[in-house]
Amino acid sequence: MIEIKNLNAWFGENHVLKDVSLKVPANGSFGLVGESGSGKSTVLRTMTGLVEDWEGNIVVGGQELGHKRNKDFYRQVQMVFQDPFGSLHPRHTIDRILSEPVAVHKLGNSDARVIKVLEQVGLDNSFRFRYPHQLSGGQRQRVSIARALILEPRVLLLDEPTSALDVSIQAEVLNLLSALRRDLGLTYIMVSHDLAVVAHVCDDIAIMNHGRIVERATASQLAQGSLEHPYSQQLYKAAGGYDRAVIDSFVDWD
Amino acid sequence: MTSETLLSVKNLAVSFTTSKGPVNAVRGVSFDLGRERLGIVGESGSGKSQTGRAILGLTAANGSITADKMQFHDVDLRHLSPKQWRKVRGARISMIMQDPKYSLNPVMTIGDQIIEAYREHHKVGTKEATHRAIEMLEAVKIRDPQRVFKSYPHEVSGGMGQRVMIAMMLIPDPELLIADEPTSALDVTVQLQVMAILDDLVRERGMALIFISHDLHLVSSFCDRVLVMYQGHVVEEIRASELDQAKHPYTQGLLNCLPKMDGNHDDLPVLQRQASWAEG
Amino acid sequence: MQTVTNQNSGGLRQWLTSNTPQSRFQARCGRTWLAWTKLTENRLAMIGLGIVVALILITILAPVISPYNPIAADLTKRILPPSAAHWFGTDQLGRDILSRLIYGAQYTLMVVGLVAITAAPVGLLIGTIAGYFGGWVDAVLMRITDIFLAFPKLILALAFVSALGPGLENAVFAIALTAWPPYARIARAETITVRRSDYIDAARLQGVSSRGLILGHIMPMCISSVVVRVTLDMAGMILIAAGLGFLGLGAQPPMPEWGAMVSEGRQFLLQQWWVSTVPGLAIFVVSLGFNLLGDGLRDVLDPRGGD
Predict the structure, then answer these.
(1) Cα–Cα distance, B18 to A91 (Å, whole number)
(2) ipTM of this complex > 0.90?
(3) Is the overall model pTM greater than 0.90, yes or no?
């Protein structure tokens, strides 16, 4: 479904992605893990056309992407942002947020679509005419997911979709994402700093550091902790909680 | 570890008057603190931060604090004048906030800010204070303390900024340190490194620490004792080492809903909230 | 709509403050009501609003409430001091000053109204376009803006009016031409802060065009700042209009425009103070009203004020 080969990207003089390659089968889920500045979100932003300065091959659904994305691309690929407080327009009602893409793509039947997608993400109709500030963090993130789903895309790009949420809400949203992938046959690329979240959602995982993929693993390899690269080992150990002896063994990867 | 009681809080309540009516952020919280590391864990809105702020008298103007007892050594924290607060805050009880970006003054060099913090409570000359500040930056494992001393806050990374904050808060040698999500904005490895520094300093100086966080797992591996808060109440108090034997369904629920690295993609158990938890 | 009419005021209040609005219309009303209650808590803003509303009412009711004909001269009653018959006295042609003030209100209102509905949208559009596209578009539009900003407003308006010829319409046009640049600046600054936000990126990823983004997503975030600034500027516009009137370049006699009235009375200022002072006070009160209202609106509408 998605194939990226030798992707390089730049922010001005900064070379932020270095030869990133990855492959995701249809209905698969791929996880990108790394710390801040590792370039993991940049991979998603480059795919969606939000980063302009890049080289390499990106193929989605058998079509190679150029530097301009057309409307049809956005019907295939949608993205969910990290911050549920920043990704919804503060002056638009949920109804407006959800019905705008329907209007832009001239899909028609706006009311029915909005009601259906709200139901899919587990929000009842009473949320439809509220403003984002009247919703909790978890509800907002459900709205973000609904906005991504309303165009019935095949691919969802998830940029730390739960990192701003409480753990109990995170569990609900992760379950929702799993159910949606199962029911709608979606393909996911998920970016997170949290190894456990990625291990839970994804089948294949890549660990990134300073714009490069340093290691690839499957979810079961990760479960056994069989990682080879010292950076990914360190990340794995850090996920285990506070352990004085382990921390002293940490190396800076600047 | 609880040999002598440093801070004793009985029936603490914090409520705010808002345009939508009164909000009870903290209700009936009691605990005794010795020279130990106490974790306060809860989700957003649980009142964990407000508990920490109430101890330091930092509750916002529209809030009111009531307590049967808030005793810090010989000081009754309930009725202090602003002048008396200045003698306690910083000097005897310090607080580290979540984001160093907002806690450091952007137009003052880091060195000047640390010196100011030190001289607030110690009558010493600039030279002595500078010396102490550099020493403190070394103590928080900053590799090039001279350079950081002369830098402005925006010139250092988040992890470095939080180390600076720790240096600034510990330089007056307080007896109690309240850390409110001090590492939540940092990457995991940096987060652990900063916690290790905090751990060492607290041990060396025999300080008490209140560590406020949303991360039950992290707190239990770091602290001696944990208070779990839900909607303003402490629903469970438990020794960190015995967390797996938590009795309250909320604590159990919080532990269970964390994703685990076991290769299992099944649905996570979802927390079923019960109205009775909120009644304490 | 039915629910509104069927319910008493308590029900209406509930309908407005409902956390679960049932329609687009209710959501919008609720939001407006919230802003209104916030504004009513501000005493000074309410005074400002009162003055502005009074100005509008006076304009509408001028023929009913004014005791005399504002332009009919009566040389037997030249420059009479304030009395029961003529509350504010009469001017050098024996016209009742109160009546002239009442009829003059419409010119003041016309000036601020026309300038606001022409200059504000132009400034908003130019500013958001410049801020959104950046690069050379921004450079060109902002240099043009700078050129207009480089001259003092009154001087520039003077130049325009002398080129176009004196008259109230030309004065309005000239003031509008000098008024838009600050709005463009504000809108541009506001646009630049929201342009990189996640919700704009998210809309872009839905395939929303640049035009849709500017009109539907960015402008709503800029409008409140611009509205506040326009309200605050209205005082200045009234003064410029009055200034042009005073210099004989605005409203032409016998139009009872307030600035022209001040000008006409200036030769008697020492002995017959009321001829100039009363319209001067009117200008002052109305300017103050707009200023107070603008200040109050800023507190209510500032997007950073938080919901």
Answers:
(1) 23
(2) no
(3) no
